[in-house]
TrEMBL record:
Region (Disordered) location: 1-20
SUPFAM superfamilies in the record: Ribosomal protein S20
Species the sequence originates in: Fimbriimonas ginsengisoli Gsoil 348
The entry's keywords: Ribonucleoprotein, Ribosomal protein, RNA-binding, rRNA-binding
Official protein name in the record: Small ribosomal subunit protein bS20
Molecular function in Gene Ontology: small ribosomal subunit rRNA binding; structural constituent of ribosome
InterPro entries on file: Ribosomal_bS20, Ribosomal_bS20_sf
Length: 94
């Protein structure tokens, strides 16, 4: 257990950050899931807007240090690839 005043304060601050980071990570998963579902099922316009929202959220999270920048890049790449694949599929069938 923490002894000094500053270490007790550090524990309080890290607990607050942890809760905030958990909420952000959960929201990120939701954004990525929506983008992936829209890419496979929805129209290209819906998929594009979901992709833009997910990319924005991932960039913000990586800038704030909630996730690593390489993890953000990997997730963005994967959802963009899925969106492009769905878009090509729609164009090929049309």
């Amino acid at each position: 257990m923490a002894n000094t005043k500053s270490s007790k304060k550090d524990l309080r601050r890290s607990a607050k950050r942890r809760v905030r980071n958990l909420a952000t990570r959960s929201a990120l998963k939701t954004y990525v899931k929506k983008a992936r579902v829209a890419a496979t099922a929805g129209t290209p316009e819906v998929a594009q807007s979901a992709l833009v929202a997910a990319v924005s959220a991932l960039d913000k999270a990586s800038q704030r240090g909630i996730i690593h920048k390489n993890q953000a890049a990997r997730r963005k790449s994967r959802i963009a690839k899925a969106a492009n694949k769905a878009k090509a599929k729609v164009v090929a069938t049309a």
